[in-house]
UniProtKB/TrEMBL annotation:
Pfam families: ADI. It comes from the Bacteria. Pathway: Amino-acid degradation; L-arginine degradation via ADI pathway; carbamoyl phosphate from L-arginine: step 1/2. It catalyses: L-arginine + H2O = L-citrulline + NH4(+). This is Arginine deiminase. Its main location: cytoplasm. Belongs to the arginine deiminase family. The active site is at residue 418. Keywords: Arginine metabolism, Cytoplasm, Hydrolase.
Length: 430
């Protein structure tokens, strides 16, 4: 377990978006991206078919920028392989991936659901997964299994494998693992396992749950939320300040997901205010972090086309009623987001730095994840190099920008924040 042994000093967890980053979870794009074709890329939530070798080069350069600043980089597949050395974890992984998923009745044609495998094929796949060593199992779980890869190996007859098209996935690939932000969030000293809304991504948080449950590095970590609960995605969760959490509600996170998260946070004393922020249900704004990310303790980079209309409902816990009644929520009327956020953060103003230079370049750069920056420390952020206008504005505002290439990485519609799950940040000075 040398690759991921515990580092001394600052404990695991994050209480803000901008405290100095010490440990981050990434996923280097791998064979799961080779599964994308022009016929399945929409279903698998990519806007094109990336050049995988170049995507890996871009990602390696991103990781190198982080390591240069003494940030420990953990890779999701290393953690998963280490996790799968334990028999209990292997059994759980195999049950999760092959179990019947009646709740996935919305799974479109082109991917077999657990219930669609039939007994002979399920038994064959279960044996195949059980025989794989931990590294092989990681590949099978992340790159998936196509029908034509197993068909010839089945000794007993399976009408399913006979009749399904060769390219049908029996186990779906997970190309969006690249976006580690979405499948878990540290809040602040425990990890929330999220519940991903899109069928193509649901299995990702089964894997993160497995890692946090079984990997020795996280043995002392408490978990909250869970992949079986209401939908919450990490890209919608912003730790605006210690105790203040903004949750976007739109294409991915549901009102019920935001409410569940708020209740869990309040019950455990992890937040005093949750801001529920309605976000337009469109691909360009799939998460709150596609329109707004923090670059300093009191500064956000924000898409100007929504800045004046973005609202927030401030949610706080009600004083417990007599007799210790169940936790109730107080919900304030909606207010402009920047105002509600500043109030909850107890600062005069949450300053806004605009995306782009004009409405057209703002729209282009928002689409290319100009808003989706990863703060490495206050006033130091990673951004895609292509977003010239936004990066110039950030620098004018005193933010140091670490530029990375993203021509191939960006085809999944995610930027540096989406591609990173901070695991340890230094607490902000009190
Ligand atoms: N936090 C983020 O905005 N993540 C980007 C996720 C992109 C991925 N292709 C998706 O559609 O879910």
């Amino acid at each position: 377990m040398a690759a991921t042994s515990a580092a001394p000093g600052v404990p695991l967890g994050c209480d803000s978006e901008v405290g100095t980053l010490r440990t981050v979870l990434l996923h280097r794009p791998g064979p799961e991206l080779q599964r994308l074709t022009p016929r399945n890329n929409d279903r698998l939530l990519f806007d094109g078919v990336p050049w995988v070798a170049r995507a890996q080069d871009e990602h390696d350069a991103f990781a190198a920028q982080l390591r240069r600043r003494d940030i420990e980089v953990l890779y999701l597949t290393d953690l998963l392989t280490e996790t799968l050395q334990q028999d209990d974890a292997r059994r759980a992984a195999i049950t999760d991936v092959l179990g019947a998923h009646p709740e996935r009745a919305d799974m479109p044609i082109g991917s077999a659901r657990g219930t669609d495998l039939g007994d002979p094929l399920r038994a064959y796949l279960a044996a195949m997964l059980a025989d794989a060593d931990p590294a092989e199992l990681t590949v099978l779980l992340t790159a998936g299994v196509r029908n034509d890869e197993v068909r010839s190996g089945l000794a007993t007859g399976s009408l399913v494998t006979t009749m399904l098209a060769p390219e049908t996935f029996l186990i779906d690939p997970l190309p969006n693992l690249l976006f580690t932000r979405d499948s878990s969030v540290w809040l602040p000293d425990r990890v929330a396992i999220t519940s991903l809304a899109m069928p193509a991504r649901r299995r990702e948080s089964q894997l993160t749950e497995l890692i946090y449950r079984f990997h020795p590095r996280f043995a002392a970590t408490s978990r909250t939320h869970g992949h079986h609960l209401e939908h919450v995605e990490g890209g919608d969760v912003l730790l605006l300040a210690p105790g203040v959490v903004a949750v976007g509600v739109g294409e991915r996170t549901t009102p019920a997901g935001a409410e569940r998260l708020a209740r869990l946070l309040f019950a455990d004393g992890l937040a005093h205010t949750v801001l529920a922020v309605p976000v337009a249900q469109q691909r360009a704004t799939m998460h709150l972090d596609t329109v707004c990310t923090m670059v300093d303790t009191d500064k956000v980079v924000m898409y100007p086309n929504v800045a004046d209309t973005l609202q927030a409902y401030a949610v706080t816990p009600r004083e417990p009623g007599a007799g210790g009644a169940a936790l109730e929520l107080a919900i304030a009327p909606a207010e402009p987001f920047l105002i509600a956020a500043a109030k909850a953060m107890q600062i005069d103003t949450l300053h806004r730095i605009d995306t782009g230079l004009d409405p057209v370049s703002a729209e282009r750069e928002q689409w290319d994840d100009g808003n989706n920056t990863l703060a490495l420390a206050p006033r130091l952020a990673v951004a895609y190099e292509r977003n010239d206008g936004t990066n110039a504005r950030l620098e004018e505002a005193g933010i140091e920008v670490v530029r990375i290439a993203g021509s191939e990485l960006g085809s999944g519609r995610g930027g540096p924040r989406c591609m990173s799950c901070p695991v340890r940040r230094e607490p902000l000075p009190g």
